[in-house]
Design goal:
Blueprint (H helix, E strand, L loop, with lengths): L4 H11 L3 H59 L23 E11 L7 E4 L2 E9 L15 H4 L9 E3 L8 E9 L9 E9 L2 E4 L9 E10 L6 E5 L6 E2 L9 E3 L4 E8 L7 E13 L2 H16 L13 H20 L11 H26 L5 H32 L1 H25 L31
Parallel strand pairs: 1-9, 1-10
Antiparallel strand pairs: 1-3, 2-7, 3-6, 4-8, 5-6, 8-13, 11-13, 12-13
Helix pairs in contact: 4-5, 4-6, 5-6, 6-7
């Protein structure tokens, strides 16, 4: 009935049939966790190795890029360019030259528009041609000297870095192209020609003292980022600057035909120790004053002339003074209306002077009417009528003399400038005829070359010019 110990053992083991299975399951789970931890650590090590290799690659690429930039900088500043291959597209934009380069400029106004303001904004479209000699192209580095310039157009050893000083904002249109001419007449070395076409808004201060008989200068100031020790900007000696008068269609301005250039120097604000040359190209426009003559001056003249109609009223009547005061108020109201079409400036223009003089005359007429009315209380009627008649004649003389003197003043001041501009038009046409006949202009600068034995039109070289008779 009692079982043996062996049987007990067996029965005991048989009584807990899943204990070993549970232990095995725990061991397998712990082994799985260890395997996962091991795989994670291996993945981390792999990512660390890959990241280190990536950092090394980035460092190597940075070093290579730095070496490339240094090499390009050395090549761009090197004077020996014989190592460049024949079919290279390498561009050297900032090479240095030991000599002072003379750059000839020609400015063509293609389109122009002016806005009426005390500080005007000019919006022209311009074409600027700059040319200079390039001795480095004398002995071609790319084969024969007669090689097509299209291959050489991609390697310009030097450029003047032209800028526009009075631009307001950014360019609306900005396009540059280059050309190389090896056998340009009158030049010893090949000539590089830069063709620059641009459009934008440019600042221009209007001088309105002579308004509405004023003549305005529309100026484009072209300078360079290089100093005056590197570049000398001059007017083109073989071609004249011009303006397209047919494209200028403005109802308020008339355009003169000449272009006048002048030279100047400036100090750039961000580099105050360096002086830069400037070439100013100016075209002129004259205001069409018909609108102001008929709509302002003529009407003001009618208003002040109507005051003489008040003399038909008896001096004892208050209606005479009433008529004069009414005309004065009419003139003031008219001035306020036309003020919208006049420039807002701090000084008086000729039109302002005329309107103020008209108001002063109306005030004198009112004073005369009040004086005659007052004298009627102290003098007899015949005496007051005598003074009234001659005071009216005196006021008429004052009005006529004022207009004569004012017209003479305008003729000697504002109109004189118009006559000067017309004379410059004739000189410009004569210069164009001279250029077509002789192919060059007389130089306007001193010689900067040592060799001056031969007559030439090379910039900086003295030459003999035979003027036409």
């Amino acid at each position: 009935m009692w079982s043996s110990p062996k049987n007990k053992k067996n029965n005991t083991i048989g009584f807990f049939p899943n204990e070993e299975n549970l232990l095995d399951t725990k061991r397998s789970k712990s082994d799985g966790r260890q395997d996962k931890d091991t795989s994670r650590s291996e993945d981390n090590r792999t990512l660390t190795v890959l990241f280190g290799r990536l950092v090394q690659s980035v460092d190597r690429n940075t070093e290579v890029m730095h070496c490339v930039m240094q090499t390009m900088d050395v090549l761009s500043r090197s004077t020996n360019k014989t190592t460049l291959p024949d079919d290279t597209d390498f561009i050297i934009p900032d090479a240095k030259r030991s000599d002072k380069v003379v750059v000839e400029l020609k400015c063509n106004f293609l389109k122009s528009m002016i806005l009426i303001q005390s500080t005007s904004s000019l919006k022209p479209e311009l074409f600027v041609q700059a040319k200079w000699e390039e001795p480095q192209l004398q002995h071609s580095l790319f084969g024969s000297k007669d090689k097509d310039s299209e291959d050489l157009d991609k390697l310009i050893p030097w450029e003047p870095k032209l800028i526009v000083m009075n631009i307001d904002g950014a360019f609306v249109l900005n396009r540059k192209t280059f050309d190389i001419r090896f056998h340009e007449p009158g030049y010893k070395c090949p000539v590089v020609i830069e063709l620059w076409r641009f459009k934008g808004f440019f600042k221009e201060n209007l001088e309105l003292e002579h308004f509405p008989v004023d003549v305005q200068d529309l100026t484009i100031s072209i300078s360079t980022e290089r100093s005056d020790k590197e570049v000398d900007l001059i007017e083109d000696q073989t071609s004249l600057s011009s303006i397209n008068t047919k494209a200028f269609m403005d109802q308020e301005w008339s355009l003169y035909k000449h272009i006048e250039t002048s030279r100047d120097f400036t100090t750039v604000e961000y580099c105050s120790s360096t002086v830069h040359p400037i070439v100013h190209a100016q075209c002129r426009v004259a205001r069409k004053m018909g609108y102001f003559v008929w709509n302002i001056i003529f009407i003001m003249l009618l208003i002040i002339s109507l005051t003489f109609a008040a003399f038909t009223i008896d001096f004892n009547s208050a209606d005479r003074l009433t008529v004069t005061i009414t005309l004065f108020l009419t003139a003031v109201a008219f001035k306020l209306v036309v003020k919208q079409s006049l420039p807002t400036i701090s000084y008086l223009t000729y039109l302002d002077v005329y309107v103020i003089a008209a108001l002063i005359f109306l005030g004198l007429q009112a004073a005369q009417n009040a004086t005659m009315n007052a004298l009627g209380h102290f003098l007899i009627k015949e005496q007051v009528q005598y003074y009234d008649k001659w005071s009216m004649v005196l006021m008429a003389i004052v009005l006529i003399v004022f207009h004569i003197l004012f017209a003479l003043f305008i003729y000697r001041t504002a109109s004189k400038r118009r006559r000067i501009m017309e004379e410059k038009d004739r000189i410009y046409l004569g210069k164009r005829e001279f250029l077509e006949r002789y192919g060059t202009l007389p130089p306007r600068y001193e010689s900067c070359y040592n060799d001056s034995s031969d007559d030439s039109i090379i910039p900086g070289r003295k030459m003999k010019v035979v003027l036409p008779r």
